[in-house]
Amino acid sequence: MCLSVIATLLLAVPDANATNLLIQGATLIDGTGKPPIVDARILIEGNVIRKIWNGTEAAPNMPPGTQVVDARGKFVIPGLIDSHVHYRPYMGEMFLAHGVTAVFDLGNPLAWQTAVKKGLNSGKIRGPRFYFCSGITIGNEADGDASRGALAGRNLANMKTPADAKQ
């Protein structure tokens, strides 16, 4: 079964506040086309992957307090990206549990998308990196609404000045 062990196992680590993590025993498929690394060791310090090696190589000195996760029989792959979602509140944990580390939301009101991104970025809600888009009108908001019928204003961001665009 192929899954993004880094995202998935972080949900199962006994001490979620540990700053160092060693994932050992998995098969690493790095997405570059190179052969998989069997019996891989992945040392993560904070949010940074510091070293990757296989079980036949000498291990570096582990930082004190390193949590060790036995991932034998599992696969590690790069985080998955879902580039077309209609994000709902229950989806954050689901995406993480399935190895999805980034999503692009295309179908929600702009104010809601902005609130979700703020909640995720602040850590108040859990989920993948969250990107979104909105329709843009230049100048008069009514011009953009005229052709949208019942959807008028729902997903529009009106840009009147450069400062509006930066916001």
Which helices and strands, and how do they pair?
Layout: H1 5-10, E1 20-28, E2 37-45, E3 48-54, E4 67-70, E5 75-76, E6 80-85, H2 91-97, E7 100-105, H3 110-122, E8 129-132, E9 135-138, H4 141-146, E10 156-159, H5 162-166
Parallel strand pairs: 1-4, 1-5, 6-7, 7-8, 9-10
Antiparallel strand pairs: 1-2, 2-3
Task: Report on the architecture of this protein.
The chain is an alpha/beta fold and 167 residues long. The chain contains five helices and ten strands, in the order H-E-E-E-E-E-E-H-E-H-E-E-H-E-H. It has helices at 5-10, 91-97, 110-122, 141-146, 162-166; strands spanning 20-28, 37-45, 48-54, 67-70, 75-76, 80-85, 100-105, 129-132, 135-138, 156-159. Strands 1, 2, 3, 4 and 5 form a five-stranded mixed β-sheet that branches. The relative contact order is 0.15.
Short description, anyone?
This protein is an alpha/beta fold and about 170 residues long. It has helices spanning about 5-10, 90-95, 110-120, 140-145, 160-165; strands spanning about 20-30, 35-45, 50-55, 65-70, 75, 80-85, 100-105, 130, 135-140, 155-160. The chain folds into three domains: about 5-75, Urease, subunit C, domain 1 (Roll), CATH 2.30.40.10; about 80-130, Translation Initiation Factor IF3; about 135-165, no CATH class.
